[in-house]
Design brief:
Shape: globular
CATH topology of one domain: Uridine Diphospho-n-acetylenolpyruvylglucosamine Reductase, domain 3
Distance between the termini: 16 Å
Strand order of the largest sheet: 15-12-14-13-16-17
Strand content: 15-25%
Helix content: 25-40%
Structural class: alpha+beta
Radius of gyration: 22 Å
CATH class of one domain: Alpha Beta
């Protein structure tokens, strides 16, 4: 189906990008052969291109398209579903050098950035101007903005601010033909035909490559407060979530859930303990933000009272940045902590209606029992997004465990879909979740394929992903 990268193609690529940004040595290629899904999903590219501008991306894609060579766009490689893995070899197009924040427009409240900007760098830069980019995911310190858009990444603050797609106002997209098409812009309204901008968000590099991104900004909230709430049972913690949202009278910007084993592993990894770890089976981490201290205090007091009413062991309030960082450091390092114990772990991110989280967690426990394994769970409980991580039993070799954990995660994803949810809430489908997507969205897949053909008729863009 595809052609190999030969010396002629290499010479052409060097002519486009220069010798230093065309990598062909095996040791260099190895670094780009996998993402956070792990080494079992690794595939070697034939060449790595580090593009520095839109023109280079355009020329590389045009060359690849004319010669039927697959192209895999890559950001930070922080994805967990194999989305940046070059399954068919070919050209890996790295955007790491396109890392400039091009504009912060304080009048129109937007920022324009290149796809290789680290999300946290954007957040810090706009904060210096008293502004806030609310679309960032949990991997804020490592992920690139382009990867966030490609997967429509979420995170802890979706309940109040929405996922990445809610904050993308414009994209400059390079298609396989080499055509560069600007979509959207600094405007916040557009009812003019099909919304191609939204189609690109979450397309996982299968339709084109983003070369510029325009994001929505809002005023930076003046105050933030976090609550850490331990519970004696998982059920009581999850059942408290809707009560917290109702009783506080304002939307919290985050409601995070972690089970006991997740907290224990993250505590060992970060050398940071949460209160009540000996007694608690589950925790909620709740955050409020706003511009009035009085209103904020009223909200978190009401939320704390709701937690105690539904069985919380205690409510701890972190009112200063140091105390808050201690709480969030443990939550942010949840996945790294698991990988320190099981380097081969793959995590799911199925999503269900929030009211069905208790039922979904019960089903995950049953699936774990079926396979004789512990499945750790963390969740963005405010929006129904559950991260499940099956731990490899010691008696099963890693090579055998790969297919078993895929089967477990597929079951979880299909179960979520049967409850009105979806197989992925924020990670994307990539390479790892194709089967779950096919099972849960059989009727939509043919339509998606036709869309793919329109933008990428030769199928060179990130082949082997989604379908």
């Amino acid at each position: 189906m595809f052609n190999k990268v030969d010396e002629r193609i290499i010479d052409n690529l060097i002519g486009i990008c220069g010798t230093n940004d065309v990598l062909i040595e095996e040791e260099e290629l190895e670094r780009y052969s996998q993402d956070e899904s792990g080494r079992f999903y690794a595939h070697m590219p034939e060449v790595v291109i580090r593009a520095e501008n839109t023109e280079e991306i355009s020329k590389v894609l045009k060359l690849a398209n004319e010669n039927l060579i697959p192209v895999t766009p890559r950001g930070a490689g922080s994805g967990v579903v194999g989305g940046a893995v070059p399954v068919y070899g070919g050209i890996l197009l790295s955007l790491e050098k396109m890392n400039q924040i091009l504009e912060i427009d304080k009048v129109n409240l937007v920022a324009i950035a290149e796809p290789g900007v680290v999300t946290n760098d954007l957040c810090k830069k706009v904060a210096e101007e008293g502004l806030f980019y609310p679309g960032y995911p949990m991997s804020v310190e490592t992920s690139f903005l382009g990867g966030n858009v490609a997967t429509n990444a979420g995170g802890s603050k979706v309940i109040k601010y929405g996922n990445t797609g809610h904050h993308i106002l414009g994209l400059e997209v390079v298609f396989p033909s080499g055509e560069v098409l600007p979509l959207g812009g600094k405007r916040r309204k557009d009812s003019s035909g099909y919304n191609l901008l939204n189609l690109m968000v979450g397309s996982e590099g299968t339709l084109g490559v983003f070369s510029k991104i325009t994001v929505n900004l809002i005023p930076l909230p003046l105050y933030t407060v976090d609550l850490l709430v331990p519970f004696s049972t998982v059920e009581s913690a999850i059942q408290t979530v809707p009560e917290v949202i109702r009783e506080s009278k304002v939307l919290p910007c985050a409601v995070e859930f972690l089970d006991r084993l997740s907290v224990e592993l993250a505590s060992i990894y970060t050398k940071c303990r949460w209160e009540y770890q000996e007694q608690a089976e589950a925790y909620l981490l709740i955050q409020f933000d706003g511009n009035s201290k009085v209103q904020l205090e009223e909200s978190y007091i009401r939320a704390g009272e709701a937690c105690l009413k539904f069985g919380a062991l205690e409510v701890f309030v972190a009112e200063n940045p140091f105390a808050s960082e201690r709480l969030w450091r443990l939550r942010r390092n949840y996945l790294e902590a698991i990988k320190a114990v099981d380097p081969y772990v793959v995590t799911g991110d199925a999503v269900v209606p929030t009211s069905l989280i208790p039922r979904m967690l019960k089903r995950i426990k049953e699936i774990g029992d079926e396979y004789g394994t512990d499945i750790l769970c963390a969740a963005h409980a405010g929006d129904g997004n559950i991260h499940s991580a099956p731990l490899r039993p010691e008696n099963i070799p890693p090579e055998e465990w790969q297919s078993i954990q895929e089967e477990i995660l597929d079951k979880i994803a299909v179960e979520a879909s049967s409850l009105g949810g979806a197989p992925s809430g924020e990670h994307g489908i990539g390479y790892v979740k194709k089967k779950a997507l096919y099972i849960s969205k059989k009727r939509e897949i043919p339509v998606m394929r036709e869309v793919k053909k329109v933008f990428d008729p030769n199928g060179i863009m990130n082949p082997g992903k989604i379908f």
